[in-house]
Amino acid sequence: MFNKLRRELGERRPHLLIPALPLRLGLTPIEQAAELLGGHIRATLGLEEPIDLLGFSIGGVIARTWIQLMGGHQRTRRFISVGSPQQGTLTAQPWPGRVFKGIAGLKWGSGLLERLNGSLDTLHRIECHSFYSAIDLAVLPGWRAVLPIGARTELPVATHPQLLRDPAAIGPLTRELLRP
Question: Please, what is the Cα angle at 85 between 82 and 86, to 5 degrees?
Answer without folding.
Answer: 90
